[in-house]
Specification:
This protein has 18 helices and 25 strands. The two termini are 17 Å apart. The chain is 35% helix and 20% strand. By secondary structure, it is an alpha/beta fold.
Length: 558
């Protein structure tokens, strides 16, 4: 079969002037900061002009990701286009892609096929500069920490207990651990240091959870950059860095307005990693979308055990959001992979492996419908080589469990291929009550919050805490951070903390090796397994296929 690449489809599209898209939201040119013809920022202060709108919020999540691909972003965009075709006033809210994955393994992250946001090249490469602004704010704080220690260290920061790292928006394993400040007295204080990828920075997490510039500045001020020799926390505010950092982020905080291939308005704004941070677009973008549209489709990162859990337990808790319906994306290919089929055999019909992989989907369904108490529909994202028997097996299993299910063909057909799914979503939002239950309450001890997530969401028997983690949790509770939600740092590939355990693992424990506070974001991070905040490039990075010709036309971007 000959298929056009995503970038070819995007480049052939007739993209509308962004002012025309803004008119659909009753926005004038005065409300926009234009970034060329097809991108604009929208002032979030428009939120203060209350319109009394009660918008329906639809969350898209998925089974655990595999090399086979699930199509969560593609489904999110396609459903939004389908709702628009059904004459619903719809807006889609997505995360911004990081350059690291774009040039690494994943490629572009603006949807796929005929369900994309455009201009996809811009969105994937720099966009409006938000992520670079976040990196600059992160590195300004790093520079001010080292400058303070160089000029006498009045705050008594212990050079061995600085936990603030520098950031760059690129996969670069060489920078994970560095020694800096070398070259003599005039060049700073020598110390061990390192870089995180920008989207793993706490600045990104705080940025995405802030309500406005005032709230962002307060969150930045609360960031704990390290400790004194007496284990007293030192904050960004102690260094008087938060004001300048917020100034760098003033324009970045405005959501970016773009469009889908079919002209549905889209906010693409913010992008914290989902296995390190909470993995959702900004609160401001979500609330802006709900301000302007009757139906808002958004997504959470990776599988439902990470992205959806954090969207619901962290973002919804902080922003007082309550989704009206949840879409759980699954593919025949990914379920067969969970059933033990190798990547090069996924195009072959294999009902036995599919049946073995289905428990992964079932667990995610149970989590959304029974733990979080939200109405859900399974979207079977159809690939060209899926057989009728395989598709029917998934449908029958969902119906057997009493779960709504719909076929999604948005990659191939755009919004037209998402109508069945959109109609199921509309039924859920109109006919079923959505009363979000959190996995844990605010006042539970940190260890019990972690245990609730591990047992209820992952299906673990229990949690093992290392001595280091126990000591850190004790210190965090003494410092008054115990009422914060917990953000689990875990592999995305498995419900467990072992990425080789596919399907629905049984009889396992989760091991927490570290616990740290992200006081600016407002949550505790519990680290499990081998989670890295600075990924590396693969042997054959996607960057090798990306090029630009003499006319400025980009190729190879997925």
């Amino acid at each position: 079969m000959g298929f056009k690449s995503d970038i070819e489809i995007a480049q052939e599209a007739e993209v509308k002037d962004i002012r025309e898209i803004a008119e659909k939201l009753d926005l004038t040119e005065e409300d926009l900061d234009l970034y060329g013809k097809y991108k604009a920022k929208v002032d979030y202060n428009l939120l203060k002009k209350g319109n009394g709108k009660k918008s329906k919020l639809i969350l898209t999540t998925a089974i655990n990701p595999t090399p086979a691909g699930e199509g969560k972003t593609t489904t999110t965009i396609g459903v939004a286009d389908a709702l628009t075709r059904l004459n619903k006033n719809t807006l889609v809210a997505l995360r911004e892609p990081s350059l690291g994955p774009v040039f690494g393994i994943k490629g572009g992250a603006a949807g796929g096929g005929y369900a994309q946001v455009v201009p996809m090249e811009d969105i994937n490469l720099h966009f409006t500069g938000d992520i670079h602004a976040i990196g600059a704010a992160n590195n300004l704080l790093a520079a001010m920490i080292d400058n303070h220690m160089h000029h006498g260290n009045d705050l008594g920061i212990d050079v061995r207990k600085v936990n603030w790292r520098r950031a760059v928006d690129m996969n670069d394993r060489q920078l994970r651990n560095v020694t800096d400040g070398l070259g003599g007295k005039g060049n700073g204080v020598p110390r061990e240091d390192g870089f995180d990828i920008t989207v793993a920075s706490e600045v990104m997490a705080a940025f995405c959870l802030a309500d406005d510039i005032k709230d962002l500045k307060e969150r930045l001020g609360k960031i704990v950059i390290g400790f004194t020799k007496e284990d007293k926390p030192v904050t960004c505010k102690d260094l008087n860095a938060h004001g300048a950092m917020a100034a760098l982020l003033k324009d970045a905080l405005k959501p970016n307005l773009v469009q889908t291939l079919e002209g549905t308005p889209a906010f693409v704004h913010g992008g914290p990693f989902a296995n390190i941070a909470h993995g959702c677009n900004s609160v401001i973008a979500t609330k802006m979308a709900m301000h302007f549209a009757d139906y808002v489709v958004t997504e959470a990162g990776f599988g439902a055990d990470l992205g959806a859990e954090k969207f619901l337990d962290i973002k919804c808790r902080m922003a007082d959001l309550n989704p009206d319906a949840v879409i759980i994306v699954a593919t025949v290919r990914a379920l067969k992979y969970n059933g033990g089929v190798k990547k090069d055999k996924l195009n072959e019909e294999n009902l036995e492996a599919l049946e073995k992989g289905l428990p992964n989907l079932i667990k995610h369904i149970e989590n959304i419908t029974k733990v979080f108490n939200l109405p859900a529909v399974v979207a079977i994202n159809k690939f060209p080589f899926d057989t009728d028997k395989e598709l029917q097996m998934i449908r029958e299993k969902c119906e057997e469990l009493g779960v709504n299910v719909a076929l999604s063909e948005v990659w191939e057909k755009g919004g037209e291929g998402g109508k069945e799914l959109a109609e199921e979503v509309l039924k859920l939002t109109e006919n079923e009550e959505a009363n979000l239950n959190f996995v844990y309450e605010d006042d539970l001890p940190i260890k019990e919050k972690i245990r609730n997530i591990a047992q209820k969401i992952y299906g673990a028997d229990d949690v093992n805490f290392t001595g280091k983690a126990l000591k850190e949790i004790e210190q965090l509770e003494k410092l008054g951070f115990s009422n914060m939600p917990v953000c689990m740092a875990k592999t995305q590939y498995s419900l467990s903390d072992d990425q080789t355990k596919l399907g629905r693992p049984q009889g396992f424990n989760i091991t927490v090796s570290q616990a740290k506070v992200s006081a600016g974001a407002g949550f505790i991070v519990a680290l499990t397994g081998e989670i890295m905040k600075m990924p590396g490039l693969p042997k054959k990075p996607a960057a090798e296929k990306i090029d630009v010709d003499e006319n400025g036309t980009i190729s190879g971007l997925f």
